[in-house]
Amino acid sequence: MFIPTRAAGLDALDEFVPRAGRDYARDRNADLGASRTNVSGLSPYVRHRLVTEHEVVAAVLDRHSLSAAEKFVQEVFWRTYWKGWLEQNPEVWRRYRRDVDGFATGTLPTGYDDAVHGRTGIDAMDAWARELIDTGYLHNHTRMWFASIWVFTLGMPWQLGADFFHRHLLDGDAASNTLSWRWVAGLQTAGKTYLASASNIARYTDGRFSPTGLATTARALVEEPLPPRTPIASDDVVGTIGERIGLLLHEEDLEASSLLAEHPQLTAPVATAVAADPGARSPFAVSDLVAAFTATAVDDAAERTLDTGGRSAQVLADTLPSTVLRWAESEQLDTVVVPYAPVGPVHERLGALRAALAAEGVGLVTVRRRWDSAAWPSASRGFFPFRERIPALVRQLVVG
């Protein structure tokens, strides 16, 4: 369904743009099966920034007014909002990781194996599980139904459901996946749950599914209070830039040209490389589809990312600090520049890398995109206050 290259992502964007206005607003919630012309299908590309949020919104607003394309533009900003919120509340991610690690080394709940292999006996749930495994994708509305049935009908831990999605979704990222599951379970907006119903499922699947036996009540889950939020750092570039710069891309951001254009002081890397580790999403096995999509996206980014000598980027064999250090030493680098990675597995990886490079006298500099710097600070509360900021953000980031 998804060809993991920037060119394919731009083609998908061009194809979708005519439908991004009122057609999308009217039809977006329907899941009518594999042929999904009512949604964009851009999320795997945006998730890896093969195509950027700025490019998507700019292309849509070049064809439609903001009022006509409001619903679609809001969906793009939802992903930005989730990232900004988790950036300010990293303890949520740390707790989630600890919980999943605990399940991986302990005993899994009864019914888990049946749920992840499409054997619950709930026809819709089983079809969706198989679709996720086979395609690496589920319609957004279907993800909400699935999560609700998982938590409230099957009574299984939300963390394991979020992990199942994260291991199989081509567009799965730490923020939008984790926080969407928390929202369904009543944790993200305290006390507010999402309860799937057979009538709603039947309506938006055009009668393909109308499952029986679903929970009719949804008691919100509870958790220990979170610590105070962490303010967004004001600096877009963190670290000291040396004389011999190497650019290292990762799976959170695979589009170097626009990133470097925002920071002209970094536009002359003497070496470039790309490294990814999709398996770090989970202690359980990550799907072959996710691994293959990421590997091909990395190869595509390597071909497009040239150093000052015109060489394509080197694809590193793994993401171990020792591997990155060998690359840096072979190119005689004093600075490795990486796109800023939001809270999640890559962020964790870069923390370990920074210490290893510093021990050998090589600096690690993180570079944050203007899009994130402008939008993330507004994600300190719920989405609705953030939504009020979207027109101003559009003027600042796209129109202005």
Explain the overall architecture.
With 400 residues, the chain is mainly α. The protein folds into three domains: 6-84 and 375-399, no CATH class; 94-204, DNA Cyclobutane Dipyrimidine Photolyase, subunit A, domain 3 (Orthogonal Bundle), CATH 1.10.579.10; 237-368, HUPs (Rossmann fold). It has 18 helices and six strands. Strands 1-6-5-2-3-4 form a six-stranded mixed sheet. Strand 5, helix 16 and strand 6 (363-367) form a beta-alpha-beta unit. Helix 9 packs across helix 11. The chain is globular. Its cofactor is FAD. Keywords: FAD, Flavoprotein. Residues 72-195 form the Cryptochrome/DNA photolyase FAD-binding domain.
Label this structure with key terms.
400 residues; 18 helices; Cryptochr/Photolyase_FAD-bd; mainly alpha; 50% helix; six-stranded mixed beta sheet; Crypto/Photolyase_FAD-like_sf; DNA Cyclobutane Dipyrimidine Photolyase, subunit A, domain 3; Rossmann fold; Cryptochrome/DNA_photolyase_1; 3 domains
